[in-house]
Design a protein that fits this description.
single chain, alpha+beta, four-stranded antiparallel sheet, 4 strands, 10% strand
Length: 216
């Protein structure tokens, strides 16, 4: 029987604010979004992240599923893969704020014109899901490659430690063997010295007695 293809997971768009950036991503679950953001806590439970249905944000993330898109925090600009902070951010913070002049209230139109919503059709959703899974496979391959490199480094380090320990143990055995030989030689020399001293004592006493008798 032909192997059934794994059903594509439906992607959703999630949004949060981290540091100086608003961040958005198309992912199949909140957990996947948190992993991509590198969050160490559940931002959704903390109220710092949410699912969004903003058509512009959804369209941007669906074009690059699995990729974290950014824009300066608090801005309403488009989300992009490489976002920069406004250049006048620091200047604005340094300058004293001037009181705003009162302006006349503008009249709002009787009825705001509704913007046409940009819906993601099924074909685009399937394409985005496939792209997300491709990105996930790439990340998983990178993780496996890094784990293999770490395992290889651990094996190299363990082998080096084992070789160094073996050399130390061998040197210790050689030292102990030589020390035992030296100790045996020392004991033999002490025994010879005692024997020589005993022989000399007897000979000295005998010769001393002979000298005494010769003087009488």
């Amino acid at each position: 029987m032909p192997k059934k293809e794994k059903p594509k997971r439906k992607l959703k768009t999630y949004q949060t604010s981290l540091g100086f950036y608003d961040q958005a991503i198309a992912a199949p679950s909140m957990k996947a979004a948190l992993d991509a953001w590198g969050a160490r806590s559940n931002l959704f439970h903390q109220g710092a992240a949410k699912e969004t249905d903003d058509p512009d944000i959804v369209a941007a993330t669906m074009e690059k599923p699995g990729v974290v898109l950014r824009r300066p925090v608090g801005s309403d600009g488009p989300f992009t893969e490489h976002s920069e902070l406004p250049t006048d951010l620091a200047d604005d913070e340094a300058k004293p704020k001037k009181p705003k002049a009162k302006s006349k209230p503008r009249k709002l139109p009787a009825k705001a014109a509704k913007q046409p919503s940009r819906k993601v059709d099924d074909q685009q959703a399937r394409k985005a899901a496939a792209a997300f899974e491709k990105e996930e496979r790439r990340r998983e391959a990178e993780r496996r490659k890094e784990e293999a490199a770490r395992a290889k480094e651990r094996a190299r380090r363990d082998k080096a430690v084992a070789n160094a320990q073996a050399a130390l143990d061998d040197a210790r055995r050689q030292h102990e063997s030589r020390a035992e030989a030296i100790e045996a030689e020392r004991a033999a020399l002490e025994e010879r010295a005692e024997t020589e001293q005993s022989r000399w004592d007897k000979q000295r006493m005998k010769l001393t007695e002979a000298v005494r008798r010769a003087r009488e």
